[in-house]
Design goal:
The structure is a single chain. This protein is an alpha+beta fold. The protein has one domain (about 20-75): Macrophage Migration Inhibitory Factor. It contains one helix and four strands; from the N terminus they run E-H-E-E-E. The strands form two sheets. The chain has a two-stranded parallel sheet. The protein has a two-stranded antiparallel sheet with strand order 3-4.
Amino acid sequence: MIALQPDTPMLFAGSDDPVAFLELKSIGLDPRQTKALCRALCGLVEQHLGIPGERVFVKFIDVARSMWGWKGDTF
């Protein structure tokens, strides 16, 4: 699932150059995978949106199965 919020005012290091903040939530996210995921996500943002990787921030969240619902139930 992806939600985009274009034209959101964001500053980093005093610059309003294009920047991206990504939040990836997953059940059972393995911390050993986050480095590779971060590299891949930053590459995709740079390739498709033209935002340099050094201006892409990624927040990883491991969500408990009981805290994620779908179709009237939790996982």
